[in-house]
Amino acid sequence: MLRALVAVGLGCSLICSVIGAEFRYQLLNDIQPLDDLPPSAYLDEDNYFRDPERMIRVRKAAGNCYAQGKCLYYSKRMKGEFCGTCGKRGSCFPGSATVLKESGEVTPMTNLRVNDRVLAASRSGELTFSPVVTWLDKRSNDTTQYLEVTTETGNRIRLSPNHVLLVNEQQELVSRFASDICPGDLLKVADSDSDSESSWSPVTDVRPLVDTGAFVPLTAEGTIVVDGVLASCYASFDHDWAHLLTTPVRWFPWLFEGEEEREADGPRAAVEQLKELGRWLFPEPGSKNRAAPDDTVIQLTDNDAGVIHLPLMSSLAATSQ
User: Fold this and answer.
1) What is the pLDDT at residue 196?
2) Strand pairing partners for 279?
3) Cα dist. 286→23, 162, 179, 182, 230 in Å?
């Protein structure tokens, strides 16, 4: 009864606040000592004299990224650069990630549609088919960094560092952000050709890669089997809390968007409002209930005048609140 009252209250609040919602975009930055800056870095003298030890690493030349209408990024994990969407947002699964439909078809995220029934699991881990009720986010052309988590069975799931996986701890499924996954953690893997065969398999490797597309399907169960591995549909926040907060969206998706809008690319206003609520409930990034910001990807930019401005750590902290 209490959960139902909370869900109804959230639904009313979301419906009132979705209209006119503003999307917040935040670039991830990497602070490092001045001595580590490459020769191609350009320094803003005002910031240098205020804080000569901590500067942003940047590069003036952005190569072909700008010509493509994209921005140049540097990945500490990959120790390399890639072109990505400007105004970078979090991602979840790339477009090439696959799911198993009830018909037996293995399909990539790019071909998944609202109302498709896909392999998922109950909160206890029992496999079942669940309908996709909506997209929490869908950006077909974004290029971004993911983590590829490999299990002993050879399954490889690609997902964003802040996405939630469900790990077996003492025979209970617990939330674990992908960035916190370690070799030896037990993940539930399912045969790609059958929903009847599943097992627990330890993680053997975690590595970064760059892939295209950013897809976040929401099923009625709040879980989904991607690339043969059970994952949560949620990112940034603990699975159970996120599942509770999205109850209005899962129960009454048509109140927030028509079916045609649910298939469209772009972030969802309702989700942005829920994230704001989550940040208020869990103000501490890096806690059990909220993922820490992924600061391993930085944007290498210059302004129109060709002068690099290097904001200080204090100003970055202020803008990120």
Assistant:
1) 52
2) none
3) 22, 10, 11, 16, 23
